[in-house]
Amino acid sequence: MSDLFENALNSIKLGIDDYQSNDDRRPVSAIRNFYAGVLLLGKECLVRAAPDADPMDIIASHYRPVPDENGGLIHEPKGYSTIDLNEMRNRFKSFGIDWPEGDIKSLQKLRNDFEHFHSVAPTEKIRQAIAGCFPLVEGFFRNLEEDPAVALGEAWEVMLAEEAFFNRQKQECNSSFEKLPWGDSLSNTNEIACSNCGSTLIYQQDKGNSDPASIRGKCLACGEAITAEATVKLIVDAEHGVDDYISVKDGAEQIIHDCPECCEPTYVSGGDVNFCYFCDFSVEGECARCMCGLTVENQSVNNPNLCDYCDHMAEKIMRE
């Protein structure tokens, strides 16, 4: 067993031990050790892909050009710093190694918050980070052709249990929205994030409620209460935020709009969707003057029966 692989296993085990501790000071150590172990595991994947090379030639972050004895040039590691997460992903690509699925960004953010802002993360948030990272760790072991149950022992059993427990919690949170008009069509609930702690465990307290305006949202991780308007906005951003960003970036119309009826930024117009998630208002019909189809983009703010152009022309005629 290489030193790198052994250090990776020890760091992950220490992280899990810290996580299970009742000591209030151990969560910081849990995230730090677990994150370090996952990175070391990824570096071991790279090192094993080129077994005859010096490990530092593979995982060094900085290199410097040095003349060789034949009039050519070689690059050797500069210093002892090794690649970070982004550099590792790029190096996986250069080595032709598939990057496994899994959310390590949440773990990285949690670790950075601890290191730089001295945040206090609730147990649920740490559980989510471990559960989200589980597929990535499993993928690294698959690349290494190692059995994680054998390599990690009890720590692996804890990770399995945490992933299963988090998934059950997430499923329960998601199901709390099913009675809402659009509840059964949600597909990106993993992108919903609490503005207070970043957890995706958002739910509505009354699971039988079917009125978006009556939602009493809450974060299971930190207990933060979320207004109906804010909860619906979180859902709209999770479901359509990426498409909205891409559409605007490509020079097309935005997808998410302020609703003409309730003024909330929860009106979606794109693809098969054309309504406000909060109040269910929908722009329909034709302009009374030019007969063009009315949309949330072209409907006049001053006269809902006209398009912007016709409303402008009508006002111009009246002024003349």
Strand content: 5-15%
Anisotropy-based shape: globular
Low-confidence stretches: none
Alpha-beta classification: mainly alpha
Relative helix content? 40-55%
The rounded Rg comes to: 26 Å
Q: Order of strands in the sheet with the most strands?
A: 3-4-5
Counting DSSP E segments of at least 2 residues, the number of strands comes to 8
Overall pLDDT: 88
**How many domains, as an integer?**
2
Largest sheet: 3 strands, antiparallel
Give the SSE string: HHHEEHHHHHEEEHEEEH
Tally of alpha and pi helices:
10
Present the secondary structure layout:
Blueprint lengths: L2 H18 L5 H24 L5 H5 L3 E5 L5 E5 L7 H11 L9 H13 L5 H22 L3 H5 L1 H22 L26 E3 L12 E3 L5 E2 L1 H22 L6 E2 L9 E4 L2 E4 L31 H12 L1
Please explain how this structure is put together.
The protein is built from ten helices and eight strands. The chain is mainly α. The protein folds into two domains: 170 residues, no CATH class; 77 residues, no CATH class. The longest helix is centred in the first third of the chain and has 24 residues. The radius of gyration is 26 Å and the shape is globular.
